[in-house]
Write a sequence for this structure.
């Protein structure tokens, strides 16, 4: 039994996988807390999808895929932030336009290539078993910067969540803070794409924070439990992937989703199980 | 405390306010009345420094708004606040104070929060999540958030709209107390009756100032006709 748990750790590629999965999921959970509380899951989805044309372009130009993805994610984040400041169009309409366009561009770019190889497929579906030491270092550095940024700007991020007008009246640069949050989302997504792939990365951003929200009515416990949940689920997902020899990204997301379902069932206020127990004991 | 001088505001080329001039002194409570779309909220937002007037000036305690933010308390309409945010009543109020003062909360800050909560009779609900509050309690949280910064000028947007009679009575009591303490108060409202009971002066606004005076003077029917475009506002007023 113990061997079953320690065996993956003997392999260097699994060590790297565990390191990146844990770091990326914790960073996503922390940033994702604000994404969930701001109700901007759709923005996360848009930025995640817009990373794809950047990767495709980098692939066509034979440039660094991570940098290409980062550039495209950042450009999309800034474009959404800028366009959504005008209140004529609802934010979600703007985002719908952008992210479909970005994905379409990616597809066209890919179709210029005679065959698209594993390299690109791995970006769509994750490549967590093929990471280098540089990847691990990159995730560690960017992740640390992101967590520090959230802690540093936390008070102001909360102010903008609570009430934009009052925050602006207190002298907070509300629009600039939006851009900051979008950029943090883009960066969190880019460093997590390797773990679960472009399509599933949204789950790292949203699911842990959404599950944690069901458990608590306070911000700090929400953020901490989201991070703990994310780390625990990605580790379990990786173990399952190793034992069963199935796709790591998909398993990580499925474990996270199971945890979310469990949180919903057990949620002290909203869950059906505690409600049933209250009903029976009454 | 507040002086608004010939303020004109345009939004997307549309004229919202035309040469609005008025003032609110310390120890004065002024009601801002007008039909929907008259520019009431726009005037508040201009005073808060959220909108730049196309012409005219706004001064708070003889300073431009940007230099007088610490003197301002703002109570937004209830739907402006994210009630589903995971925060309890005391934290929400403390947070408003921290944002304004920009430092870690000390004993004085906690005392200010406690005082603000007592003032609006929410001390017992201090640990309750804001999402679990009733409409009237929510209105009191917003007021406590504004009071926690110790404002000299208090701006309220529709504080009496959609709250029950006990809450209205409590708001009336709290606002009268603040006025007695020397706070200048400007509040928008739809409801002439409640404004007339409470306010020292009433401004009738419809793009421009139609009338500005004590409630008794503003009761005049022709003024109402000009402000609201219809005499309907007179029902139960005169």
């Amino acid at each position: 039994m113990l061997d079953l748990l320690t065996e993956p750790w003997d392999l260097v590629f699994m060590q790297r996988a565990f390191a990146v999965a844990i770091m990326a999921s914790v960073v996503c959970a922390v940033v994702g807390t604000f994404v969930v509380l701001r109700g901007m899951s759709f923005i996360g989805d848009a930025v995640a999808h817009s990373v794809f044309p950047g990767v495709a372009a980098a692939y066509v130009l034979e440039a660094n895929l991570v940098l290409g993805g980062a550039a495209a994610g950042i450009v999309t984040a800034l474009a959404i932030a800028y366009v959504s400041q005008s209140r004529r169009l609802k934010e979600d309409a703007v985002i719908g336009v952008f992210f479909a366009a970005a994905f379409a561009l990616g597809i066209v770019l890919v179709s210029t290539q005679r065959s698209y190889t594993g390299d690109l497929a791995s970006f769509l579906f994750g490549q967590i078993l093929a990471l280098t030491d540089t990847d691990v270092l990159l995730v560690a550095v960017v992740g640390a910067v992101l967590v520090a940024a959230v802690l540093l700007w936390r008070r102001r991020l909360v102010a903008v969540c609570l009430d934009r007008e009052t925050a602006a009246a207190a002298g907070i640069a509300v629009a600039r803070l939006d851009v900051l949050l979008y950029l943090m989302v883009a960066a969190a997504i880019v460093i997590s794409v390797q773990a679960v792939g472009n399509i599933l990365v949204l789950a790292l951003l949203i699911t842990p924070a959404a599950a944690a929200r069901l458990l608590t009515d306070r911000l700090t416990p929400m953020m901490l439990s989201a991070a703990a949940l994310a780390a625990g689920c990605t580790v379990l997902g990786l173990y399952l992937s190793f034992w069963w020899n199935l796709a790591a990204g998909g398993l990580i997301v499925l474990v996270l989703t199971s945890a979310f379902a469990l949180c919903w069932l057990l949620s002290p206020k909203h869950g059906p199980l505690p409600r049933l127990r209250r009903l029976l004991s009454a | 405390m507040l002086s608004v001088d010939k303020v004109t505001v345009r939004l997307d080329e549309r004229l919202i306010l035309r040469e609005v001039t008025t003032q609110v002194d310390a120890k004065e409570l002024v009601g801002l009345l007008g039909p929907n779309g008259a520019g009431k909220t726009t005037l508040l937002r201009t005073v808060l420094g959220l909108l730049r007037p196309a012409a005219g000036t706004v001064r708070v305690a003889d300073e431009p708004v940007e230099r007088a933010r610490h003197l301002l308390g703002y109570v937004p309409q209830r739907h402006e606040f994210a009630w589903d945010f995971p925060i309890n009543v005391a934290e929400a109020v403390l947070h408003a104070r921290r944002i304004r003062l920009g430092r870690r909360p000390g004993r004085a800050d906690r005392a200010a929060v406690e005082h603000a909560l007592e003032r609006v009779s929410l001390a017992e609900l201090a640990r309750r999540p804001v999402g679990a509050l009733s409409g009237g309690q929510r209105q009191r949280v917003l007021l406590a958030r504004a009071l926690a910064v110790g404002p000299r000028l208090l701006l309220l947007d529709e504080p009496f709209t959609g709250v029950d009679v006990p809450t209205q009575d409590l708001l009336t009591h709290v606002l009268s107390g603040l006025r007695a303490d020397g706070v200048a108060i400007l509040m928008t409202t739809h409801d002439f009756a409640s404004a007339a009971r409470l306010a020292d002066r009433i401004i009738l606004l419809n793009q421009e100032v139609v009338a500005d005076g004590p409630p008794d003077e503003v009761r005049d029917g022709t003024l109402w006709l000009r402000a609201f475009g219809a005499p309907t506002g007179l029902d139960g007023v005169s």
In short: The CA atoms of residues 59 and 65 of chain A lie 6 Å apart. The radius of gyration of chain A is 19 Å.
